[in-house]
Amino acid sequence: MTDEKKINIVLAGQGNAGKSTVFNYLTGLHQHIGNWAGKTIEKREGTLFYNDYTIDVLDLPGIYSLTTYSVEEVISREYIIQTQPDFVINIIDSTNLERNLIFTLQLLELECPIILALNMIDLANKKGITIDHKKLQNLLHAPVIPTVASRGSGLTDIIDKVIDLRREKKICRTPEYGKEIENSIAQLSELLRDIDLPYPERWVAIKILEKDKDITGQVNIKRPEVLETAKLLSEKLEEIHGHDSSIVISDERSHLASRITRESVRITPDRQISLNDRLAAITTHKFLGYLVMILILGGMFLTVFSFGNWFSGRLDTVFRNWHAGWNNIVGTSFPASLGWSAIESVLALVQIAFPYILPFYIILYILEDWGYIARISFLMDNLMHKMGIHGKGCISFIIGFGCNVPGCLSCRIMESKRERFITAVLVTLVPCSAVSVIVFGLVGKYVGLLWALGLYVFALTFVFIVGKISSRLLLGEPVELIMPMPDYQTPRLKTILFQTWDALKEFIFIAAPLVVISGVVIQAINLAGWMPAVSSVLSPVTVSWLGLPSITGILLIFGILRKELILVMLAAYLGTTNFSDVLTPPQMITLAVVSMFYIPCVATISVLWKEYGWKKAMVICILEIVFAILLAGFVKRILDFVF
Amino acid sequence: MSLTDIKDGQTGIIVSVMGGKVLTKRLADLGLTPGTEIKMVGRMLFSGPLQIEVCGSRLVVGRGLASKITVELK
Fold first, then answer.
1. Residue A580 confidence (pLDDT)
2. Domain range spanning residue A556?
3. Which of A176, A502, A551, B34 is the one with CA 20 to 30 A from A451?
4. Which run of H or E residues covers position A47?
């Protein structure tokens, strides 16, 4: 293929503007999701075949600016400069034009050719916001196209525009700021002429006026004398405006954004309070908000677990028949048993993935797309701060209830390293679907539902205490919550399915291989007849300290693979599913407590390892083993008084 | 007065932001710069976060952060 027919575009924009929707629409199944070199930040690339053009699309992380505040912002900035894409498609949330334009101005400063997608224009119109996109186009000197990405409308217009304009010489007009700033920029650009840096001179001038660390460092190597002038000029600006020069320039950007908005937007005052407004008011109300949250989350868990129990019971019957069939046909020899344990590992994963995790994430992402999850962050921020993290951490916790693997991965939404780590540690203590199977299957069924719910309260209290302790131990300034509150909108099926698949995929690709391999290894040890030795080694802990049957030593080892195996194997070893015959209520509760906390499962450990290094992963595991055993021992002693 | 002192439903104008460069810049990128109008929508109990309206859209701001934003009533 000739280069003529090859185009590359980049999608950039703030979070919540619908960037992923555009990306998914354009690239469909031709996506490749990897990581940015050396970073744990997702890199999403895809290809669009349109007429006979091949268009490479890259989805930059959702960011608010192009300063060096976060890793995502640095990545985005460097990527745009280094690859010089044919076009940057700036996806804009039309209901928040002014805020989004601040970012657009920064893109224009980079002197890259951009096309604006005025996304969610339908929602804006509904809110009484009319945007004159022709006017906006003239003010920004860049093409502006209204789109509704959720319906795919306007997206082909963008691609047509890209193809149309690619031959033209791209002249990108940089935004023009106030006089004294422009003078300083002009003066510095003159001094920077022909400097050997990969950036536009005007942009470098702005950055050194803003005292951007990274760029200042680079100029210092090439032309240190320019920095002297830059210092004088920023001091002059600071004298006039009374703020730091970087703030002066930010102010300038936001004033320009606000002027452009004023000139191109007409707002029809819509005094009618819509249903969504009322909903927004109730769901963030001081008291009612919490009530609604408890109802929604409670309803969600109840639905998932009643559906899950029914469905997994059905699957169980089917798989039992398969096992019998396998034994009849293949036999029960050593290799045959190993083969079956590999298959069984996969089947057991299916038994957790489809009945519990899949519906859990579908409901979760319906809530997310609707706009409710941001409300939970808002409601929980206060409590989360007591654990040294802010409200957004709550989202990772909720995801962790489904499965700890995507839960730990989702900690990437936290801004600082410290908070990411604290959140991840706490997520590993959140009872996931597999643990819930044990809690409900053992305690809920044989001791009482209230006891099972009590265990949940106990688990969350434990999470809170650990959070409190770790926020004290890990020094650092807690980051404050600041995030846009999205409006409620009708959830979109496509987005929900994509996100659910993303979460489920993490579970399948990270958990499944590990589980199968370790399942076979443990089964081999079992068949070799070493298990009794293992359980007798562990018996001081399991029997003497925890008061459990010695068999639990083996169960807890299998449980590292997947927590629900503790219950499955207990039934297998005892030859009965009526656990009340073999365990007393205090034993059941003790076993449930151990299972909840004693170690993250193999898949979660591997995620911790990948994200935080093996040292931290090991420390978490060892601490959790010690804590869980101590805790469960005390619980047992207290329970002995109760029962 | 600080942003936390405005009552629900009242509107104020940002006078200044006390805080590090990073914080101030972050706020500026979200449109919170001196001269901007802020409407208080609501707040959570026990020094929880605030919900504000800026440039026609809503933002959630932690209480500690909000206390660093000085405003005057419109």
1. 81
2. 288-480+489-642
3. A551
4. strand A42-50
Judge whether B57 is closer than 8 Å to chain A, CB to CB. yes
SS3 A359: helix
Per-residue pLDDT at A220: 87
Would residue A170 count as lying in a domain? no
Interface test with B, best of A482, A485, A487, A488 (most B CBs within 10 A): A482
Residue boundaries of the structural domains of chain B: 3-73
Which pLDDT does position A1 carry in this prediction?
A: 46
Which parts of chain A register pLDDT below 70?
1-3, 29-42, 64-71, 169-171, 270-273, 574-577
- Is there a contact between A10 and A58 (Cβ–Cβ < 8 Å)? yes
- Residues from A contacting B (CB-CB < 8 Å) are 64-65, 67, 69, 95-96, 98-99, 102-103, 129, 211, 243-244, 246-247, 250-251, 253-255, 257-258, 261, 267, 281, 284-286, 374, 377-379, 381-382, 385, 390-391, 480-485, 487
Reference A480, options B17, B16, B56; nearest CA is: B17
Q: Is B31 on the interface with A (CB under 8 A)?
A: yes
Place of tokens 């979070």: A15
Q: Which of B29, B54, B60 lies closest to A481 in CB terms? A: B60
Strands A53-59 and A42-50: antiparallel
How far does A64 lie from chain B, in Å, by closest CA?
6
Q: Are residues A74 and A200 in the same domain?
A: no
Domain boundary among A165, A198, A228: A165
CB of B48 within 8 Å of a chain A CB? The answer is yes
- A202 shares a domain with A318: no
Together in a domain, A437 and A349: yes
pLDDT at residue A144, rounded to an integer:
92
Buried b (16+ CB within 10 A) or exposed e, A282-311: ebbeeeebeebbeeebeebeeebbeebbeb
Based on the number of CB atoms within 10 Å of its own CB, is A126 exposed (0-12), middle (13-18) or buried (19 or more)? Answer: middle
Q: What is the CATH number of domain B3-73?
A: 2.30.30.90
A613: left (phi over 0), alpha (psi -120 to 50) or beta: left
Residues A372, A437 share a domain: yes
Is the domain of A70 the same as that of A196? no
pLDDT of residue A402: 82
- Statement to judge: residues A93 and A199 lie in one domain: no
- Whether residues A40 and A159 share a domain: the answer is yes
* B contacts of A374 (beta carbons < 8 Å): 60
pLDDT at B21 over 80: no
Residue A35, pLDDT score:
56
pLDDT at A170: 63
CA distance A609 to chain B (A): 30
Please say which residue of A235, A267, A299 terminates a domain: A267
Kindly report the nearest CA distance between residue B30 and chain A, in angstroms.
Answer: 6
User: What is the complex's ipTM, to 2 decimals?
Assistant: 0.88
Which backbone phi and psi does A7 adopt, to 5 degrees?
A: -130, 145
